[in-house]
Specification:
Layout: H1 2-28, E1 51-57, H2 59-71, H3 76-89, H4 91-99, E2 133-139, H5 141-153, H6 158-171
Antiparallel strand pairs: 1-2
Length: 187
Amino acid sequence: MSGFLKSLRTRLEARRQRHAEMRSYLKSAQPPEPVLTGTGRDYSVMSENDRALKVHLPEAVHVALSELCEKHDSNFSTLIRHVLFIYLYGRYDLIALLERGKGQFDITDRASGHFMRVSNADNRTADLGKNDHDIKTWIPSQMYADLKQAADNKSIPLSVFVREVIITYLFGHQALPERESAGGGEA
């Protein structure tokens, strides 16, 4: 048994040494050349996360975000900013920006919880639980304005719109029932 333990310790130490060497190499390695060109749109106006965005999420969404953050060693604010960027401007530009080190969407996390009373009228997310997880995320003002315009185009409050964008990103379009038309009838 002691021979087995000695062998196990030796292998474990060798593995630790290889990991230490790999970490050292990765720290010294040059970043790879960017592969994606991006669309060429100018996102320089989004260099600061200067606008607070509050959203109330159901339990299932909060759990899914938590798991993704843990898996990708990230935080709620960064993940939500990425989801919203993808919704508004596309995954292609996000990846191209991150490749070039223009990760203004990775700026320090200033997320915090905030309690607000929310109406459950027209709650299309009831199957996912009550919207009782309050998230406050900082995003660029231009992104906020673009989200507000998209919400206004659908005639729903911004926080409801953002919640539905996040749910759709995480669980797909089938996770939300169809919205009832304001006219009450079919066209």
